[in-house]
Description:
By secondary structure, the protein is mainly α. Helix content is 79%, strand content 0%.
Amino acid sequence: MPALVALIAILAGVLNTVQAGANTTLNKTLGQPVLVALTVSAANALVYLAAIPFVGLGWPGTSRLAQVPWWAWLGGAMGGAYVLAMIVLAGRLGAAVFTGLTVTAGLVTSVLLDHYGWVGFAPHPAGPWRLLGCGLMIAGVALIARF
């Protein structure tokens, strides 16, 4: 994996955690989680529009649209549910517990998705080391939540 790609992924993880605090503060101040989620979505749209000169924008033909599996259209709704959960729960749980739970749940889910090759991922067996890693993540979150 090229170093720049790993660095960008690490930066995305940092931003995701800081985002939880920013969104929680916005919710504490406004007291309206759905309004906060809509504000976050509007800010997302601005970022996507600003990225167009760098990544491009095109419209696929109808034949390509017809090839999209039904579940692939649900990604945006899943992202919206995550942001709303972040807005409502991160302040109650704290940054470490919220991030630990969501990252660990995501990691365990990804090992399962990789193992079976579900939702478009190439199969990658969940061997003993991957399962041990999942167990260590779960134990780590338990420790963080406990202390």
